[in-house]
Design goal:
By secondary structure, this protein is of the alpha/beta class. It is about 40% helix and about 10% strand. The chain has a domain of about 230 residues: 3-Layer(aba) Sandwich (Rossmann fold). The chain is built from 11 helices and 9 strands.
Length: about 350
Amino acid sequence: MDRDAGKSLGSILVTGATGKVGRRLVAELLRTGQRVAIVTRSSDAAQTLWQEQGAGQGPEIRAADLTDPSSLGSVCDGIDTLFHLASYSPRPDEPDIYEAPSHWPVTAEGTANLMARVEPSGIRRVIYLSSIKAMGDRAGALGRPADESVIPAPDSLYGRAKLAAERSVLELGRATGRHTAVLRLPMVYGLGDSGNIARMVKAVAAGRFPPWPRIENHRAAIHVEDAVDAAILVAGHPETAGEVYLVTDGRDYSTRWLYEQSLIALGRPVPRWTIPLPVLRFAAGVGTVGERLSRRRMPLTLDGLGKLTGDAWFTSSKLERNLGFRPRQTLETEIPRLVRALAHAPALGA
């Protein structure tokens, strides 16, 4: 990848900058000497975050709420490049997170509000970080790695909101001639002790993750640093205008492989026996009923089991072919690194 791609981006605005991916994007932009502003609903919380990270000179903070168009008046002033990452983030205990009602007003309508403000501004390029959920779960279960040619058919409110946001961004580009592009991310890792992979490793370490069936499913993933690199790379190349790119680390992972690698990194033997899939389905069914009754997230539901046993198989060959994108990280090195970090956490064996 061209590590100098961000030098021609001018002044930069980032939405969703306090999120797990957004804060790393901002940190990388600041590290390379970019002039960065962020949009946040709580300027005090954002200021505290950057002080806690010890990032030195932090970004300029602009207070606004994407769901309130009247708050967006001057948010785009003096900006050349917009990285748009803002979306609704469900609470940790919120059930059925992909159907949370707030996805639509924050992600879909909020993006439309922002693009309406971008249109009369001087912003020259908009890069939107979206999700493979905009394509729908069936897109990743074709028996082969899916690419950008698959017609999106989102099957969750989250996915429909993401697709609507993508269309708002790309339509702005078509209508005004601006450089707009979309990146769709799969499961993101490298997020410290948060994220699905970290939760799985913690569960394996604590003995809460059962000996998993030998099911060879295929799931794509991307390290957060590679996702950030891809976003900056796309922003720095005008020929990406109007394009949609999938971003992966070039590998596919089965849940069984993740389970075994976690045990190996923990220095534990891999059990010779496994939990039969029908037993997991029964437990997941109980969890689904419990979640509906309690309105709290359960450790295992039928939807969760489907993700753990099914495919979410995607390829970033277009990005690799067109822009020379080469991911630097894989879960083969990330899982041992994660285990080493978790070994110092008091909750590892809790």
